[in-house]
Amino acid sequence: MGVHEQNCFEKEPFATGYVFVPKGDTGKRTLGIRVPSDIYAAVLESAAATAETRANAVKLRDEKDLAHSRQILRTQFPLMPAESLEAILNHAFLKGSGRVGRTATQSDKRKANLAVEAHIRHTHTPYESMLHAGAGREEARNAVWGLVKAIKTAWEGGDSQPMDVLALRNRMVESN
Predict the structure, then answer these.
(1) C-beta of residue 19 within 8 angstroms of C-beta of residue 34
(2) What region holds the DUF2293 domain (predicted)?
């Protein structure tokens, strides 16, 4: 097209045959560009015609990503209970969540480790009750780190025995 459109405000006057198109899909209609109305109509028609195909492509990609994440978690943590696996996938790997499982700055293995550690910390240790009792985050994290590591090792199929983990967890709960 050669010509660069200039950002403009919706309230500014514009030439006949042009429409105002807001910048992005933020819902704010004050800043955008002016485009010929026939071109804009053609773009909207094209978008409507391909919406279902694009939505299906996104759905397939999301399902593939989720299956990939599930496989990584299953491979790294073969003894993880199924309900924990589902909880992690539905929380840390939820699209649009901004959580650790969705970051592009970590390796898949690192994301899985961080997500599993967070899940264990929040659901299998007294971490939350320590926070509610006034402990600082760092203090509570340090206090439960041994238990988090023990459970994670058990889920990896390592040396730690599940009964030892339960005994350790029960001691920590009783001491709080």
Answers:
(1) yes
(2) 73-156
